[in-house]
Amino acid sequence: MRSQRILVALMAVALVAAGCGRDGGSTESEGGPAATVSGDFGDLSGICGPGEAKDATAQGVTGTEIQVGVFSDMGFTKNPEFDAAAKVFTSWCNEAGGVNGRTLTYKIRDSKLTEVRQRMLEACREDFFLVGGGSALDGLGVKDRLSCLLPEFPGQVAQIANIGSDLQLAVGASAAENVNPYAGFQQWLIETAHPGSAQAIGIINGDSPVTKAMGPKMVESLRAAGAQIVYDELYPASGVADWTPYAQAIKSKNVRGLIFFGDFRSLAKLEEVLTGMDYKLDWIDANANAYNPDFIELAKSSLGAQNNYADLSGIAPLDAADQVPAVQQVLDLYERYAPDAAITFPALKAIQAWVLFAKSATACGDQLTRSCVLETARKETAWTGGGLLAPVDLSTPLSEQPRCFNVQKATPEGWRGVDFGATDGVFRCGVTPYRYATEVGKPMTLADVGKTIDDLE
Fold this sequence. Notes:
Layout: H1 2-16, E1 23-24, E2 65-72, H2 74-77, H3 81-95, E3 103-110, H4 116-126, E4 130-131, H5 142-147, E5 152-153, E6 179-180, H6 183-193, E7 201-207, H7 214-224, E8 229-236, H8 244-252, E9 257-261, H9 264-276, E10 283-285, H10 293-298, E11 308-311, H11 325-337, H12 345-364, H13 370-378, E12 403-405, E13 407-411, E14 414-417, E15 428-431, E16 434-435
Parallel strand pairs: 2-3, 4-5, 7-8, 7-9, 9-10, 10-11
Antiparallel strand pairs: 1-3, 6-16, 11-13, 12-15, 13-14
Helix pairs in contact: 3-11, 3-12, 8-9, 12-13
């Protein structure tokens, strides 16, 4: 049991840095699905719809069907967020007529945390593309994915070998990047929202090989911004039975702003102790993986006392539905196709990945190939996923681009937006991420496996 607790903790903190074998979608009759709903998404027209596609043009593509893979650790974590996002999008897309008349289906590649390579080899044999998924130890599968020339539009990336790797288009931020994508958010916290807190910053991080390197990187970035780190601690990846010693240390150091890398369930327990000893911080960076209804429920006894914030890194929040039609559409689609599923931060990123795939695949017409989908997507120089994202230039590596951020605060009533100085709709854009002076590793390339982009068909 102890080994399983350790693995759960490792997975949880790894994802800060981001039914086994189930088939998704449905099989339609010859000729593909008929359109019964609009194929428009947000401000994008006709990304799904009927058509005359009839040829089997690539692995996973027949005249009537397209099969893609969706990575997930759901067999281990019991978290179905990527499965639910795939179900919602493919159900809607197929009701709209599919992709040029082809039914869009998916197969869950359940890596169960440690079986990434096994599932990747299966995907290499069967899938046309990987879309809208993610695994905590995703770096284990990159070499095989590139060797079999399998592109992906992931919902979440976690490890440095995979972040920005070849044949991949990913949006959003990860603490494992070679830059600090949260620099704008952190500057807002210490200079605008809670001035003076910069002189007493604390960091607490899970003690695992995957994530404990995040602490020194964040310390470097914060010090460059003029902050003083007064508390920097690891907690056991196997879990903490009593958070009192950590809370007492935070109080004794007079920490005013706390950055937490780890499972939101652990953060809720820590905050319960801090609140119980009547110690209120100026702010807590709960990280975006806490952007879900479960954290609100678990931390409800502390949310009136502690200021929990999350930077959604340019992903439109759910409470912006009245301003962003694409968000309202996501809410409506979940209500129709998966009413019991929670819409989490990774789920929102997964939906935009599905939108990118469908739009690009539709543009390729009957002659659907991996290279066409990837190259079509790369032409999006201001990609917003129909309005779900702040604009991203998919033709340029994400690490070289300015970033946008947007801030949510956890309240007893749920996650709510705050005044963070938005400049572009619900986002604040133009932030240059801090580039670390220390080498943090590199993403894997086609050259690393002896291939080039010309090998992609």
